[in-house]
Amino acid sequence: MASRPIAIEPTRAVKPRWYGGWWSGARASRSPNFGPRPPGTAVSLLVVHSISLPPGHFGGSEIEDLFLNRLDWSAHPYFETIRGLQVSAHFVVRRSGEVVQFVSCDRRARHAGASAWRGRENCNDFSIGVELEGLEGQTFEAAQYAALTTLARGIARRYPVRAVAGHEHIAPGRKHDPGAGFDWHRFRAGLDAAGGADWDFPESATRGNPDGAR
């Protein structure tokens, strides 16, 4: 008697989940550079940055080493210019699309510095910082846009984040990242395609979009 074929259920992708302020879609690498958010502060802003160490160098461990306070300052002349920095971001999106989380989103990371958004200062208090591995002014990878969109949607499901800005928008003149190479229209289109949150973008980031700025 011939055996009957076994029905195999299609594999369903498991959506990343939140465990406190930690997102399961990211590899955890815990930075000591964080602090408490002011009591009662709602997380309402996503800040997009770009970073490469040394500038223009991709794929190494230097970004992670910086955020974990273990960067060898003598390994490159550029590192001497940032010696002693104790900074962090909540997330880094590598060129491959890998997402690494350094600070719980319930905590205050050190990514924005002196900053203001919509008249409100000290953006570290109420924002989540995401660093894209890249050089300001240059382009980013398709895998990074896909990962950033997935991450932003995940953040919006967990926190009341409905606004997004670049470091250049919250610290104009002082910071210029992610820069002209970052395609804000592409990022916005990915978020809009997913539906849900009605995202607030800086006017300068959406200028020229046929749909109009939000």
From TrEMBL:
One of its GO terms (cellular component) is cytoplasm. Keywords: Cell wall biogenesis/degradation, Cytoplasm, Hydrolase, Metal-binding, Zinc. Transmembrane segments: none annotated. Its main location: cytoplasm. CDD domains: PGRP (cd06583). It is an enzyme of class 3 (hydrolase). Residues 31-179 form the N-acetylmuramoyl-L-alanine amidase domain. It comes from the Bacteria. Pfam families: Amidase_2. Belongs to the N-acetylmuramoyl-L-alanine amidase 2 family. This is 1,6-anhydro-N-acetylmuramyl-L-alanine amidase AmpD. The gene is ampD.
